[in-house]
Amino acid sequence: MKNSLIGIGLYLLTGIVFYGYQGYMLPTFLLLMAMVSFLSFKKKERKEVRSGLFWMNLPILSLLFVTSLFTDSFVIALPYLIFTPLVSILVYYAIFPTKRIIFFGGILILIIASFFAFNLISGNTEAFDSSYWETYSRLVKR
């Protein structure tokens, strides 16, 4: 329960860094979530890891799900609802040494798949939108 705000904090952090551009927020959020989860629970027992990962992901997933029901952003929340639990499963297997290789390969595959899945679902034909980078560079140079 004490880790319940980590997911929301990481989502807000990626939102600030990428100025709310969901196409880049999703892969970065998944990578940060995997790293923080792995580092937080790597020396814990199985039961504690399971409950810790559950409480780390439940608030952000429920927040995204509930807000997407009341707005028109279900398409944006769908990749988060799909890929975040998959990352948690990979982290769970990575903490125990017999399955560690699955974690590293799986995280790479999930991050790349989430990037292209978001672009496919949102209807974005340009995977690397240059207008976003122009806006971002103007904000950073201020």
UniProtKB/TrEMBL annotation:
Keyword Transmembrane: yes
Keywords: Membrane, Transmembrane, Transmembrane helix
Record-annotated membrane-spanning stretches: 20-41, 53-71, 77-95, 102-121
Protein name, UniProt field: Uncharacterized protein
Organism: Capnocytophaga stomatis
Organism phylogeny: Bacteria, Pseudomonadati, Bacteroidota, Flavobacteriia, Flavobacteriales
